[in-house]
Amino acid sequence: MRNLIPVLLDRLADGPVALARVVATSGPAPRRLGAAMAVTAAGEVIGSLSGGCVDSAIVQSARDVLDTGCAVGERFGPADLDDVVIGLTCGGEIEVFVERIDAGHVAALTELLAAITTGRPVAVATTLTTQPVWRVNHDDAIERLRELDEDIIDLLDAGRSGIVGVDDTETPLGCAADRPRTFVQTFASPRRLIAVGANEFVRALTSAAKNVGYHVTVVDPRPVFTTAARFPDADEVIVAWPDRYLDGEIVSGRTDSATAVCVMTHDAKVDVPILMSALRSDRVGFVGALGSRRTHTDRNTRLIEAGLARDQIDRLRSPLGLDIGGHTPSEVAISILAQLISERNGGSGRPLRDVDGPIHRGSENSIR
């Protein structure tokens, strides 16, 4: 949905668009809450809900919604391989809500896009009724929102999407006594990656991390190498001593448990101070350092000599990355990004064939 908003605003210039979103899941669903697909009156399909399992059925529902103007909900369960009924081969369930988006939504979509672009937490609440009502909720309007719906505040604060309210009512949103069932889709601030070192490995990691939604900062004290032209995918390119830069970010409150620091310089006079700052702070969630096992051993010795406690050193992911046998900067970047994603989502980092249980993990709001 995050990437679909600019497309919706563009296509609305030519007329209404049907928007389909996953609003609830149960079991090993293929996509998370808020996964979105749009269908235009001309038949253009943008995005995907299931990687193909149910998308064709939703295209037909989208055409009906465009014709009637009435939103619909669709539920898809496990597929029976001997049946022609469309279902999910992964064995889970999803609920999809399809609504018509028109010129009346432009203001809300524009407001939503502005908040996302500037990194402000924001949520859009949509009543799951035949004539949906939208409301965009910012963190700067919490007191006003508190008078309307505490549940939406909780989801916005937690950065989670989910359903609030009850079924089978057309009561306008905001009625505390008889709320309609409402899907709240939140857009949290992007996770931060601070990559230390102006080299080819950092450039490859920057590009890979941007593709999965990280806000990437490259920092290095050497101005000749640390330029925006060399790191076109970075959100920020900072010429500074990395430890001083990180200390300033921590003090200013611009880092948190979703911040990752990856040190990739192989230079002790840079590595040790930035690692000291990162490992001592509870406002940095992931701290990694690239290097061989010999480099790792030498670096740990230097950190101990500099006064870092053993439990703080134990936070360091070094050597950085998962064991995929990569050598090139792009392969190493994939190895590092795989570790970031795995640790963020509680994955094992092992081959799926060697792991029991569902491949797709449960989401925050289940179908009941």
Architecture overview:
- The chain is of the alpha/beta class and 368 residues long.
- The strands form three sheets. A six-stranded parallel beta sheet has the order 12-11-10-13-14-15, sandwiched between helices.
- Strand 13, helix 8 and strand 14 form a beta-alpha-beta unit.
- Helix 1 packs antiparallel against helix 3 and helix 6 crosses helix 11.
- It starts with a helix and ends in a 23-residue tail after the last helix.
- 38% of the residues are buried.
Query: In which order are the strands of the major sheet placed?
Result: 12-11-10-13-14-15
Compute the number of strand runs. 15
The separation of the N and C termini measures 24 Å
Shape: elongated
Secondary structure tally, helices: 11
Percent of residues in beta strands? 15-25%
Average pLDDT, to the nearest integer?
A: 87
Low-confidence stretches: 80-85, 168-177
Helix- and strand-based class?
Answer: alpha/beta
Order of helices and strands: HEEEHEEHEEHHEEEHEEHEHEHHEH
| Rg calc | 23 Å
**Can you summarize the main beta sheet?**
6 strands, parallel
Oligomer: single chain
In a nutshell, what does this entry contain?
32% of the residues lie in helices and 21% in strands. The protein is α/β, with parallel strands linked by helices and 368 residues long. Strand 10, helix 6 (200-211) and strand 11 (215-220) form a beta-alpha-beta unit.
Name a few traits of the molecule:
32% helix, alpha/beta, 11 helices, 5-stranded antiparallel sheet, single chain, 368 residues
